[in-house]
Amino acid sequence: MAHFGVLSYKGAGHLNPLIALSRQLMVRGHGVTFFLNAEMENYIDARGLGFVPIGASNSDHVKHEKPSGGIAVLRYRMRRTISEMEMFLYETPSALQRVKVDALIIDELALAGPTVAQIVNLPYFILSTSVPHNFGWSAPRHMMPSRSLLDRIQCALLEVSVLDMRGPVLHSLDRFRYKAGLGSIREIRNTFSELAHITQLPRCMDFSRSHLPANFCYAGPFIDESARPAISFPWERLDGRPLVYASMGTTRRCEATVFHRIAEACEGLDIQLVISLGGRRDPGIFQTLPGDPLVVSEAPQLDLLKKAAAVITHAGPNTVFETLMYGKPMVAIPTAFDQPAIAARLAWRKATIVLPPGKLSAKRLHTALRKILEDPSYRKVAEEIQAELHSHRGLERAAERIETAFKQYTESRALSNIHSAEPRVEKE
After folding, report:
1. How many Å apart are CA 273 and CA 296, to the nearest integer?
2. Rounded to 10 degrees, what is the CA torsion of 395, 399, 405, 410?
3. Helical axes 317-325 vs 12-27, angle rounded to 10°
C-alpha cells in the first residue's frame, strides 16, 4: 500500500473531486495526506484525510491588500498567485520529507506541484478537474462572455500565465528551479514527467483528438456523496411543483443582476425556483426577487439535483458533471475561466442551451428554460450522457490507473536497483 500526498488548489471545484478520489484510495487501503493552506485543515480533517498545513509560518511571504479596481487588481492577483506558488515551493519539500509520502497527486492548478515533486524525487500524477490546460479553454465566439477591456486583459493573463506557462509566473518558477539546479519547467516532461495525467472530463464530453500521450486517461466525474458537508436547507418550503435549481458557482461573485434576471425569467412558469448564492452573498438582499424564489447562501447541491427538473448553471465543471450524473438538462450561462469550454461541449452534445451573460435577458432565459423543460430531446440526451458517465466509473477508473502506474513504477525501480547491485564479472 502507498502513501499519497495531495497538492490542490483550495477552491471547492478542485477540492471536492480530489477529496472524493482520495477517499476512494483510502478505501483501497492507501494513505492520503493533503498539503494545503492552514485554513483548510478542519475541512480536510472532517473527511477523514490526513492534513499538513502549508503557510502556517508565512512571515517570509508578502501579504497584499486587495485594491479596489482597475489594473491594480490584475497586478494584485498576479502577485498573489506568485506569492502563493513560492510559499509552496519553499515549504512543501521539507513537509513531504517529514511525513514520508511515496507519490504525489497534483491538481493541475497547483503550479508548484511538479517542481516540488522533482526536488524531493517523488513520482507524481497530474489531475485535471476540468478541461486539461493543454487542450485550451477556447469556445465559439458566440458562447464567449462579453468582456470589458480589463476583463479581456485578465483573461489573456490567465491563459498566458497558467495555461501556456509564460510570463511572470513562469519567470518566478524558473528562477526557483535554476537555483535548485533544475532546468526550465517547460522541459519537465522530458526530464521528470508525470506517471499519468488523469482528467475528470469524460471522453464522451470531449471533442475528437488524434494525438494523446500514452499516460493520458479520461476517467469521468469524481463524486462522493458521503464526503460532502452537511448543509441545512428548508426542505419544508418545497411545494411540489417542478424544481429548477440555479447555481452560478462558488469561485466568483456573480453579479446580482444575473440572479434578478433568472428569477424574472422563471416568473409565470409552473415551477419552483431555488437559487444558491454559492456562499458569496447574503440571501437577505434577494428577498424581493420576482416570483418569490427560494434563495439560500449555500445548498446541498447533490440532493437538489436529484429532485430538479432542470438546472441553470454557470457551466462550471463540478456543477455540470454532477448535473449530468443525475441526467438533468441545463441552461448554461458561462461567465469566465474554463466555463465557455465546458459550455461548448454541452452544446455539442445537445444537452443544453448556452446563453452568454453579455446577451442575457429575462426574455431569452425564459424562452430557453421553457424549451429545456418542454422539449424532451434535451432530457433524453442528458440521460444518455448519464448512462455513459455511470459506465465510466470515474472514481474507480482514476484510482485503478493510479494504482497500476505506481505499481509499474515501483517494480521498475526495484528491478533497476537489483541490476545496479549485481557484481560485475570481468571477462578474461
Report:
1. 11
2. 170
3. 50
**Rounded to two decimals, what is the model's pTM?**
0.88
Distance CA 312, CA 319 (A): 10
Cβ-contact 113, 92 below 8 angstroms: no
**Same domain (yes/no): 147, 253:** no
Sheet with 3-7: list strands edge to edge. Answer: 50-54, 31-37, 3-7, 103-107, 124-128, 196-199, 216-218
Q: pLDDT digit string (tens) for 274-320?
A: 999 987 788 888 888 999 999 999 999 999 999 999 999 999 999 99
Picking from 401, 308, 289, 323, the residue whose alpha carbon sits closest to that of residue 24 is 401
Residue 77: per-residue pLDDT: 72
Residue whose C-alpha is closest to residue 272's, from 246, 298, 301, 242: 242
Q: Which of 404, 399, 423, 417 is nearest to 20 (CA)?
A: 399
Pair 250, 374 in one domain? yes
**Closest to 291 measured CA to CA, from 330, 262, 332, 313:** 262
What's the distance, Cα to Cα, between the start and end of the chain in Å?
Answer: 46
Question: 103-129, pLDDT tens digit by residue?
Answer: 999 999 898 999 999 999 999 999 999
173 located within any domain = yes
Contacts of 342 (CB under 8 A, 6+ apart): 130, 131, 315, 316, 317, 320, 332, 334
In a domain, 21, yes or no: yes
Q: Which of 52-56, 185-189, 259-263, 315-319 has the lowest mean pLDDT?
A: 52-56
Nearest by Cα to 142 from 301, 325, 358: 358
164 pLDDT band (50/70/90 cuts)?
A: low
CATH number of the domain within which 384 lies: 3.40.50.2000
C-alpha angle with apex 320: 319 to 325, nearest 5 degrees? 95
3-state secondary structure of 72: helix
How many angstroms separate the CA atoms of 68 and 408, rounded?
52
The DSSP bridge partners found for residue 52 are: 35
Residue 111 structural domain = 3-225+392-421
Could you give the CA distance from residue 202 to residue 302 in angstroms, rounded to a whole number?
A: 19
357's grid cell: 451573460
